[in-house]
C-alpha cells in the first residue's frame, strides 16, 4: 500500500534512519525487501506488481518523505530510485542510501544521458537504468546486484568482528572490551552501544542527535538525553583524559580520535 508523508526530508535524515537495516537472510521468510521510490504512479505501480509477482516484498513511495517513513518502519534491501523527486536532490538521496550496509541502490530514471549515469554511479548507485526500462531487465539487474552484495559480505566480513584501538579490543559479537593485557572491562548496554558507534565511525564528528540515533535499539540508557554522562563514563572506564580518545568538538559534538583497525 502506498504511503505518502508531507514532512520535510533530507539525505542526512535518511542516513540516520537506515543504520539498523537487516539483511534478507535474517528474516524468517527470507524475502528481499524492495522500496520503489518514484513520483510516476504508473511506473511505480507496474514495477511494484511485477516484482511482487516474482517473490519480492515491495513497498512504494511517491515522495522522499513517504520513503523515509517506510524505511523507518520496514527497512529495505534494495531501493529502486528515480532521481527526479519533486523538491529533492535525488542524487543526494542515492548517496545517503549507498553508504548504508546491506542497502543496494538501483537508479531507474528518465535522466539517462551519459553524464547522468556517471553522476548516479559516482553517488554510489549499484546500477543505473534509463527509462523506459524493461521489467525483465530490471529483474535481472536486481538479481545481479544482490549476488554481488552477497559476495562482498562473504569476502569482507571477518569471522569475528573485533575493533582495535589504542591498545583496546572491542569484540562486537561477544560484547566484550579487553585492555592490552586481555583483562575484561565491563560496559553497560548504553556504554557498549556508544563505544561501538564510535569505533565504527572513527575520526568523524558526530552530533549528539546522531549518537542517539546510532545507539537506538540498545538498552534505554543508551539513548536518553544524558549523552554527555554516558561519554564521561566511557572515558573513565577507558582510563583516558577528556580529549585523548573521545574529543569534544565545541558546538558540534564528539569525535573518536584514534585509528581503528578491524581484526
UniProtKB/TrEMBL annotation:
DNA-binding region, residues: 160-258
Gene3D superfamilies, A to Z: 3.40.50.2300, 6.10.250.690, Winged helix-like DNA-binding domain superfamily/Winged helix DNA-binding domain (1.10.10.10)
SMART domains named in the record: REC, Trans_reg_C
CDD domains per UniProt: trans_reg_C
GO MF annotations, alphabetized: phosphorelay response regulator activity; transcription cis-regulatory region binding
SUPFAM superfamilies named in the record: C-terminal effector domain of the bipartite response regulators, CheY-like
A GO cellular component entry from the record: cytosol
Family matches, as InterPro entries: CheY-like_superfamily (IPR011006), OmpR/PhoB-type_DNA-bd (IPR001867), Sig_transdc_resp-reg_C-effctor (IPR016032), Sig_transdc_resp-reg_receiver (IPR001789), WalR-like (IPR039420), WH-like_DNA-bd_sf (IPR036388)
Residue(s) carrying 4-aspartylphosphate: 82
One GO biological process term: regulation of DNA-templated transcription
Intracellular or extracellular location(s): Cytoplasm
Occurrences of domain Response regulatory (ranges): 33-146
Domain OmpR/PhoB-type: 160-258
Keywords of the record: Cytoplasm, DNA-binding, Phosphoprotein, Transcription, Transcription regulation, Two-component regulatory system
Pfam family, one: Trans_reg_C
Name of the molecule in the record: Regulatory protein VirG
Gene source species: Candidatus Andeanibacterium colombiense
Organism lineage: Bacteria, Pseudomonadati, Pseudomonadota, Alphaproteobacteria, Sphingomonadales
Amino acid at each position: 500500500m502506498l504511503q505518502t508523508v508531507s514532512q520535510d526530508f533530507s539525505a542526512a535524515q535518511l542516513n540516520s534512519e537506515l543504520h539498523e537495516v537487516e539483511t534478507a537472510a535474517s528474516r524468517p521468510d527470507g524475502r528481499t525487501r524492495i522500496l520503489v521510490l518514484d513520483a510516476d504512479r504508473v511506473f511505480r505501480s507496474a514495477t511494484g506488481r511485477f516484482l511482487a509477482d516474482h517473490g519480492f516484498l515491495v513497498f512504494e513511495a511517491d515522495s522522499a518523505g513517504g520513503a523515509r517513513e517506510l524505511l523507518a518502519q520496514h527497512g529495505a534491501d534494495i531501493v529502486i530510485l528515480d532521481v527526479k523527486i519533486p523538491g529533492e536532490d535525488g542524487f543526494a538521496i542515492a548517496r545517503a542510501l549507498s553508504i548504508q550496509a546491506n542497502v543496494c541502490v538501483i537508479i531507474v530514471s528518465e535522466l539517462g544521458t551519459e553524464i547522468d549515469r556517471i553522476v548516479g554511479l559516482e553517488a554510489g548507485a549499484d546500477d543505473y537504468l534509463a527509462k523506459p526500462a524493461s521489467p525483465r531487465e530490471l529483474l535481472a539487474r536486481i538479481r545481479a546486484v544482490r549476488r554481488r552484495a552477497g559476495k562482498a559480505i562473504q569476502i569482507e566480513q571477518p569471522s569475528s568482528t573485533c575493533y582495535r584501538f589504542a591498545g583496546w579490543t572491542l569484540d562486537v559479537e561477544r560484547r566484550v572490551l579487553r585492555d592490552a593485557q586481555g583483562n575484561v572491562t565491563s560496559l553497560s548496554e548504553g556504554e557498549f552501544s556508544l563505544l561501538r558507534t564510535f569505533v565504527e565511525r572513527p575520526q568523524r564528528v558526530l552530533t549528539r542527535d546522531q549518537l542517539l540515533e546510532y545507539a537506538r535499539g540498545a538498552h534505554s540508557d543508551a539513548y536518553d538525553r544524558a549523552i554527555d554522562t554516558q561519554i564521561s563514563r566511557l572515558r573513565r572506564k577507558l582510563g583516558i583524559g577528556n580529549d585523548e580518545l573521545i574529543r569534544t568538538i565545541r558546538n558540534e559534538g564528539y569525535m573518536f580520535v584514534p585509528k581503528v583497525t578491524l581484526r
